[in-house]
Amino acid sequence: MRVVRWVLIFAVILLVFTDTTKEDYIQWEVASVRAQANNALVDICMNLIGEDLMRNHTTERNFLVFSYYQTDLYGKKIKAIGIFNSFLLLSNS
After folding, report:
1. How many CA within 13 A on the CB side of residue 59?
2. Model confidence at 72, in pLDDT bands (50, 70, 90)?
3. What are the residues facing 89 on neighbouring strands?
4. Rg of the chain taking only CA atoms, in angstroms
5. How many alpha carbons fall within 13 Å on the CB side of residue 8?
6. Please, are residues 47 and 12 in contact by the beta-carbon 8 Å criterion?
7. 60, containing H or E segment
8. Does the structure show a pLDDT above 90 at 93?
9. Per-residue pLDDT for 32 more than 90?
10. How many CA atoms lie within 13 A of 7 on its CB side?
């Protein structure tokens, strides 16, 4: 029982220290859009205004061990969670 408790404590500490930030999410989202578009015009636009655009249309909810992000951009909703310094896309509608 003692070992299980220490493993759980270690896991929570690890989750807290590997939680993502809104800036991490924005960089990930801009890179994702650029990779999906595969278009020179989109690439140029994302370089110029992509981060500001995402920053202004993204909300973050930090739950200490993970973060939830929602981007509402021109009628499109992107939902993701950030955990272990990575992002998991929940929906893209």
Report:
1. 4
2. very high
3. 80
4. 16
5. 5
6. no
7. strand 58-62
8. no
9. no
10. 4
